[in-house]
Sequence to fold (157 residues):
Amino acid sequence: MTPATAVLFVAVPPNVKFSAEEKRALKSFATTLAKRVAAGRGFTCAITNDEALRNLNKTFRDRDYATDVLSFPASRDHSDWGDIAISAERAAEQAEHFGHSKLDEVRILMLHGVLHLTGMDHEHDGGEMARAESKWRAEFGLEQGLIERSSADFEAG
Fold:
């Protein structure tokens, strides 16, 4: 079996910076996700900007707005799970809003994206993805995840 790999591209806008140490930490986390969460299959993660996420969201989901994370599963016969795109700008804003580091926010988004790559879909799975996300976040020491935030926002609004 080929070892799990995770390819990480960090091409962020000038207003969001990641140090070399943060980039190494994200690469390490991505590799851990590939090994443990994605059952040994790799993925590619691009950390980019709002404009790129908006274009991807419009092209592939017909939704004309920037979002924080998008997942693009590969075909079943492909050795990797697929690709994830994360907006560094959304991550920085959400990190400030929720009171944790942008590094942790990118990790939360990356975990969420990987769970989607494995076939989970929180909109239709009766809570399976929410439970998995909660379990992995606890194991990795991460704050409240996207599904919990969405539920809290929905209940508050």
In short: Residues 152-157 have pLDDT under 50 and may be disordered. Strands lie at 6-10, 43-48, 69-73, 82-87. The longest strand covers residues 43-48. The two ends are 48 Å apart (CA to CA).
